[in-house]
Design goal:
This protein is an alpha+beta fold and about 240 residues long. It folds into 2 domains: about 180 residues, NADH Oxidase (3-Layer(aba) Sandwich), CATH 3.40.109.10; about 40 residues. About 45% of the residues lie in helices and about 10% in strands. The protein is built from 11 helices and 4 strands, in the order ααβααβααβαβαααα. A 4-stranded antiparallel beta sheet has the order 1-2-4-3, sandwiched between helices. Helix 2 crosses helix 6 and helix 3 runs antiparallel to helix 7. The longest helix is centred in the middle third of the chain and has 24 residues. The radius of gyration is 20 Å and the shape is globular. It is an enzyme of class 1 (oxidoreductase).
């Protein structure tokens, strides 16, 4: 163990923030830390939009399913997968981008995730708290319109930033034995290990909610994954110039 590993293992989602503002210079420093993340073939396909306008914030909170902290957090960022900038780079060199490939969608989206996680770790190292907001994809077309996103750009998720005004427990993760495989994939024994993990998750929820929520991880997954998962996403992404081939 060292301080970096301890910081990573102490991550919690924070949904209540103090009124203490975050200096813009700190936001810039965090974005620079995000830029330092690995990027596939140097494409650097992440654009971050800091949303300051309160009316836009309120509308984004509504798009995300009424998550009030989107409107209230000191800083709200939207992370976008951006191949428009790469198109511009091609035009600067009298070349025409051959866009629409699934591989481009994957690499741009992975770039965003790596960038955001670097930024998150940097933020937590400064005593800030964060929560990712995937809910902006509930109404992704409206979000894109609010942010005036062009073709070849799509919003992957949002991020609330602020100084924590709560101290939640760390949510238990799956046992390493379930996640780390040797030489090939095998789920032999995973069911028994997950059953034990389920009890730890049940106890976590009971403690966190004062007994108002009693659910295991596998119950949560089985309840969620039998439902449609934002079926509008494919057509939206194709309209944006992604996943065409």
């Amino acid at each position: 163990m060292n301080p970096v590993i301890e910081l990573l293992n102490s991550h919690r989602s924070i949904r209540k923030f103090t009124d203490q503002p975050i200096p813009q210079e700190t936001v810039k420093t965090l974005v620079q830390a995000g830029q330092a993340a690995a990027t596939s073939s140097f494409i650097q396909a992440c654009t971050v939009i800091q949303v300051n306008d309160q009316d836009k914030r309120n509308q984004l909170a509504e798009c995300a399913g009424g998550q009030a902290y989107v409107a209230e957090a000191p800083v709200f960022l939207v992370f976008c997968a951006d191949m428009q900038r790469n198109k511009l780079a091609c035009e600067m060199n009298d070349a025409e981008i051959n866009s629409g490939f699934t591989e481009q969608f994957i690499t741009a989206t992975v770039d965003v995730a790596l960038f955001a996680q670097n930024l998150t770790v940097a933020a937590e190292s400064l005593g800030l708290g964060i929560v990712y907001i995937g809910g902006i994809r509930n109404q992704i077309a409206r979000v894109s319109e609010l942010l005036e996103l062009p073709e070849l750009v799509y919003p992957v998720f949002g991020l609330c930033l602020g100084y924590p005004d709560q101290n939640p427990e760390v949510k238990p993760r799956l046992p390493v034995e379930v996640v780390l495989k040797q030489d090939s994939y095998s789920d032999s024994g995973d069911q028994e290990t997950i059953a034990e993990y389920d009890q730890a998750v049940r106890e976590y929820y009971q403690t966190r909610t004062g007994g108002n929520k009693e659910m295991t991880w596998s119950e949560q997954m089985s309840g969620m994954l039998v439902k449609e998962a934002r079926p509008h996403m494919l057509s939206f992404l194709q309209d944006r110039g992604f996943l065409l081939k």
